[in-house]
Amino acid sequence: MQVHTHTFDVVVIGAGGAGLMAALYASRNQAKTAVISKLYPTRSHTGAAQGGIGAALGNLEEDHPEWHAFDTVKGSDYLGDQDAIEFMCYQAPEIVYELEHMGVPFDRTPDGRIMQRRFGGHTNNKTGKPVRRACHAADRTGHMILQTLYQQNLRQGTHFFNEFYVTDILFHEGRVAAVVAYELATGDLHVFHTKAAIIATGGWGQLWEVTSNAKTLTGDLPAVLLRRGLPLEDMEFFQFHPTGIFKLGILITEGVRGEGGVLINDLGERFMEKYAPTVKDLASRDVVSRAIYLEVKAGRGIGGGKYVYLDVRPETVNKYAKLDGRTNPDGTPYVVTEEILRKKLPDIIDFCKTYLGIDPMKEPIPVQPTAHYAMGGIPTTIKAEVIRDENNTVVPGLYAAGEVACVSVHGANRLGTNSLLDIVVFGKVAGKEAAAYAKQASLAPLPKDAADFTREQLERIKNGRGNERVAHIVAEMKEVMQEYVGVFRTEEGLDKALEKIRELKERFQHISITDKSSKYNLELMEAWEASNMLDLAEVTALSARNRTESRGAHWREDYPKRDDQNWLKHTLIWMENGKHRFAYKPVVITKWQPKERVY
Ligand SMILES: Cc1cc2nc3c(=O)[nH]c(=O)nc-3n(C[C@H](O)[C@H](O)[C@H](O)COP(=O)(O)OP(=O)(O)OC[C@H]3O[C@@H](n4cnc5c(N)ncnc54)[C@H](O)[C@@H]3O)c2cc1C
What we know:
By secondary structure, this protein is of the alpha/beta class. It has helices at residues 17-28, 65-75, 82-102, 141-156, 220-227, 255-258, 272-275, 285-297, 314-324, 338-344, 346-356, 418-440, 452-463, 470-484, 491-508, 522-546, 564-567, and strands at 3-13, 33-37, 53-54, 116-123, 130-135, 159-162, 164-172, 175-183, 189-199, 232-233, 238-245, 262-264, 308-311, 365-374, 378-379, 385-387, 394-400, 405-406, 488-489, 555-556, 569-576, 579-586. Helix content is 36%, strand content 21%.
């Protein structure tokens, strides 16, 4: 493996919305900036985001950033840090207009303003009813944001290293010194000597069997940091989105329910009325996912199966809109036609045709909860600085933003549309902060053996002669994560999962791969990604077993109550010589004292 060396002020790892926003702002602030991405930038998962980006523009009805902030705090089950939440929600209108001015083609109201739709957990704080807060470009909002940010970076002269896998970060006396990457096309290693690094590598839904996440979301950088002695935060909180296509997990946006779609059980009941009488189908995701599981458990899944229906046929939408007394902003009754829905949800209609062979305008969609979003991740300050302990000690030169980071604006459960917002708001912060840091910092000395740890890991995989197959190990990991570290958890189940994961980690030492080539060796990289997933699966299950309460997306059947007395705090977990250690950080509360959540 040949080793190449580069020098930059700021290296951004990941080219999704968070990475591209960070790179844009670092470049604009005179930092020589590189973006390293294992995917071609516009293939990043941000491009799959459908429903919208949240901002209290109030374009169609009364709304306020304050309401947005409170909904986010409540949605987070009071685990979100309220200073960060307020910052994000007050920034939201400005940053949506900034995206608009960069070129994102948002849908429009008849009088030319940005169109907004309803989404789960976003409410009018006076009435408790859903509010139109999600700004959208049809059901391709993330695609439009990603393309726009990529174009802006090209114009700004950001350097791109595409199809490069970052495999390591090196530190000198505690501060960032270099980022190491593997180039897929050649098999060469690259050492990026840099003053600052921004991690923006997205989530890790691939730990589960049924997921909405792209194949590449394997949690590489969180695993790299664990190996380098840094902690991860709140790993027990992973969101299951209620409406994945049955068995496939492909996401059906909450926007479908925002437009009036309803969930229906085998008895034809709109069952969310029972679980969330005020907002019904638009309760927060943790609440809806549990409701679906409970319906299935009670034998009311469709035909007794493990799924329910999401019904967005115009006649169904109009029937329930009438029963709910739903109106348009001008007070007229809310009525949809097939034509309107086809315009608002083109991709969803397409997915259903392609993957299910059905037309959702004529038939209901079979859905089940799907592993969707990491609330936890790399702990950061509100300025996107990565911290190394419970006292918020900053790692100089290291930043994280987007889904991979835990700032924490989503706490125990994220509201829909708040991730696209998070990635642009905190991506921007990270870019500016890293550039400012790089301006006053010098390059840390580069160790001579910079690429050694990466070379060692990859050669061990390549030279393995054992009988174990990576694909089998990954499949078994996904199965136990789905079964025991999913929507409902118990100590017994989590112990089983941990036992299995540890067995799989052992078996991973005895893998072999068939492709020994150095060019485009995807099998090698998939094996390396599997090692990352196993480390993350273990810390996820450990953190879930450790938290003996139920909060947001973390539901313990053996501890079904939220326990603010003991657990109103963030978990930090370290991996040290194969052993794990916990510490805790208080939740930042500004003005909303924890209350019971009622939807
Ligand atoms: C189907 C779907 C629909 C969604 N819809 C919405 C929505 O409507 N509204 C909303 O707010 N949120 C939505 N979300 C969530 C939101 O889209 C994501 O949380 C967000 O886009 C993540 O952005 P990111 O920039 O953090 O990471 P990503 O966009 O996932 O990008 C990760 C980047 O990291 C790179 N990378 C990863 N590992 C490495 C490595 N080892 N080396 C180099 N590069 C690496 C990848 O190449 C990629 O460029 C949706 C998510 C999904 C899956």
